[in-house]
Design a protein that fits this description.
The protein is an alpha/beta fold. It has 26 helices and 24 strands.
Length: 700
């Protein structure tokens, strides 16, 4: 008797689907829905693959011209959709393919059977994987039938060129070896990824394997199908790597932290973690999903809707922390408003100029001292301030100077009260005091933090209060100090958040090519980065699995020449088939951005500016343009970092020259900003400038 049908779509199928004409995509979606409802319907039209290597692989008719490639196992009710293409191309793709359950890993693998010449004994020591034994290759998930093929590969360039012949898990494991990671270490890593997998005798069992779910998504209903097919290239929202899935599904006894470089999928993990936890909530329990900036919160909320059910999304409050604080205080009758930017600066200016002792330091020094010493250590009295640690602050202050500086702080505090305003740090502190006095109704069952490196110690102490006393899965934090582009910094353990024994590191870059990753990371050479706690994060074990060209630097004599050069590059990409919305032009300031938008518009190139507090609407055409701060959390096929000139990158006005420590910190933040901008690129990155180029590019 045939089992109930279970239909799964492969990542390769979605890649092929995305390349089809839109009209054909609609037909494919309708076919899959019919296929999902009854894979044995007489209208499916299964056809054998002439000369095919695997008798389980069949073609199915989409229309007169297009065919889908499937695997069927009626006895278990499993049907896999592997590929879709024009008739001849679909058959060519399928002819040498095999779909098997790897006996070592339990994963479903789709791979090519490649006829290779026998490598002569004299040449065997000079092939790429000469040091690996057959047993070692099998441990890495290489099917026995592919071992001769693997042994015939001469160098890394040939290996990457033949990526399409490998199952995704095999290619990934071999890539680590190619990139110089010791084989024993790779095998150990691979064993960790297999953890939880059970021996599989059929496709139904194998679809439960974490390694299989990395490449296949089981379609549970029509709503989910249409969501997946509506955005097929956003596969990272659907397909989790086993190491990511393990983190998402793990039950932690308390708070947990996840580190990872740009492109390793930290936000993806955080979103799936929110979905996973939301599914287990009861009664009125809720989740707070927060981050530093409003625009990133908007992007996350938009993406969560794509993976969560209606009930799950209703239980998740997605809001940046500043907005949450403002909302909470307002709901509890708090009289003051939160002051930002010019309004806050004016208060400091008034406090400094109205105090006898003020001329020795710039206004910015007092604000920094207040936020990073007074607020960070809650030293809200003269007695506490003179005893507070100033480790990491460059300017030395004796007791007498601290007493004089406190007069400025006192004046500032009085001005806030008189004007009924608070800066965000003071508001967070008062918010926490209010929470601790009120009932647990203000608290959430779970708190999830994205881009944790951007939050202050004050913010993390507040989140500790919001989450309540330590309990299972209370706070989940993802971050990367290499992407710290704001001045905040905190050690979690000093904020009441204990992550000891509950930390993970994501090591695979899914976004950028290895060449882009290395070039971007090289900008940060010689800088020490923390792990969001009391130790260091070297970031030296991250690796990309795709390759391409190194970022191209375009240096021109003047602004007009620079614009013409990048215009020619962009037109070339569009003429070559790249959608305009997959290209992003990034500038350091809004003023610069306005100038480039005007030039592009007058040259007939439509622009879509990605602004704060609003997600990128992928339904609108045009190249994307954004500031370097705004592109954080986003990704595009091609990125152009423009006006990389002296005094613009780094931005002269952003460098704090008060002392050597402040100067170094702000320079590091500018390097991190360029690192963030470059690592938005998936396939290609360009850095252009005119006149004297950025000092960060010297020697490049």
């Amino acid at each position: 008797m045939e089992a109930a049908a279970k239909v799964a779509i492969s990542a390769d199928f979605l890649t092929a689907f995305a390349a089809l004409p839109r009209q054909i995509q609609g037909k494919v979606t309708e076919f899959i829905n019919k296929f999902r409802n009854n894979p044995q319907s007489p209208g499916i039209n299964y056809e054998k693959i002439n000369g095919g290597m695997d008798k389980k692989i069949w073609s199915v008719r989409i229309d007169d011209t297009y065919r889908g490639i499937t695997v069927r196992q009626p006895e278990t009710g499993v049907y896999l959709l592997l590929w879709v293409d024009h008739h001849d191309e679909a058959y060519d793709w399928a002819r040498n393919k095999k779909c098997e359950i790897n006996p070592k890993t339990g994963a479903i693998q789709v791979f090519d059977i490649v006829t290779t010449p026998v490598v002569e004994p004299a040449a065997q020591d000079f092939v790429l994987f000469a040091e690996l034994t057959d047993e070692g290759l099998i441990e890495l998930g290489v099917p026995e039938e592919q071992i001769p093929f693997v042994r015939s590969i001469g160098d890394a360039q040939e290996f990457y060129a033949k990526k399409a012949s490998f199952a995704s898990d095999t290619f990934e494991a071999l890539s680590w070896v190619v990139e110089g990671i010791p084989v024993d270490e790779v095998i150990e890593l691979f064993k960790e990824e297999k953890e939880g997998s059970k021996p599989a005798e059929n496709l139904a069992d194998a679809l439960e394997s974490p390694l299989s779910l990395k490449s296949f998504v089981v379609v549970e209903g029509e709503e989910e199908l249409r969501r997946i097919m509506a955005e097929p290239l956003e596969k990272w929202r659907v397909f989790l790597h086993p190491t990511q899935r393990k983190i998402v599904n793990k039950n932690y006894s308390g708070s947990a932290r996840v580190l990872g470089g740009a492109g390793t999928g930290k936000t993806v993990v955080a979103m799936h973690r929110a979905k996973h936890l939301a599914a287990g909530l009861k009664n009125k329990e809720r989740i707070l999903f927060t981050t530093y900036t409003a625009n990133l919160a908007s992007d996350i909320k938009d993406n969560l809707r794509k993976i969560c059910t209606l009930d799950e999304i209703r239980r998740i409050d997605v809001i940046n922390l500043d907005a949450w604080v403002s909302q909470f205080l307002r709901e509890h009758g708090y009289p003051a408003e939160i002051a930002y930017d010019e309004k806050a600066d004016n208060l400091w200016e008034e406090a400094v100029t109205g105090t006898d002792f003020s001329g020795e330091f710039p206004v910015s020094f007092y604000e920094e001292e207040y936020n990073r010493v007074v607020v960070a250590q809650e030293a809200f009295s003269l007695e506490k301030y003179v005893k507070a640690s100033r480790t990491g602050r460059g300017t030395r202050l004796d007791r007498k100077k601290r007493m004089q500086i406190w007069k400025v702080f006192e004046a500032y505090q009085n001005l806030m009260k008189e004007n009924q305003v608070r800066d965000i740090n003071t508001a967070m502190y008062e918010c926490r005091l209010l929470i601790e006095k009120t009932s647990s109704e203000t608290r959430y069952r779970h708190v999830i933090v994205d881009e944790g490196q951007d939050l202050s110690a004050n913010a993390f102490r507040l989140l500790r209060s919001i989450a309540g006393e330590e309990h299972e899965n209370d706070i989940f934090i993802v971050g990367d100090a290499h992407q710290r582009i704001y001045k905040n910094k905190a050690a979690l353990s000093k904020c009441g958040i204990n992550i000891r024994g509950r930390s993970s590191v994501l090591r695979i870059n899914y976004r950028t090519t290895e060449e882009i990753r290395k070039a971007a990371f090289a900008l940060l050479n010689g800088i020490f980065f923390d792990d969001l706690d009391d130790s260091f994060d070297t970031g030296d074990r991250c690796q990309s699995l795709t390759h391409g060209s190194v970022p191209e630097i375009i240096a021109t004599a003047n602004a007009n020449e620079e614009f013409e050069a990048i215009l020619a590059k962009i037109k070339g990409l569009i003429d070559g088939g790249v959608s305009a919305k997959n290209i992003c032009v990034v500038a350091r300031t809004h003023k610069l951005l306005d100038d480039y938008i005007a030039h592009f518009t007058s040259s007939g190139i439509r622009c879509y500016e990605i602004k704060g507090n609003k997600a990128d609407d992928r339904g609108l055409d045009g190249i994307r343009v954004a500031t370097m701060h705004r592109v954080k959390g986003l990704e595009f096929q091609y990125v152009f970092v423009v006006a990389a000139n002296n005094r613009i990158i780094p931005l002269a006005s952003a460098i704090d020259h008060t002392d050597s420590v402040s100067e170094q910190e702000t320079m590091t933040a500018e390097k991190c900003l360029l690192y963030v901008a470059l690592t938005r690129a998936q396939k290609g990155a360009y850095i252009s400038g005119y006149g004297k180029m950025s000092e960060f590019l010297q020697g490049k």
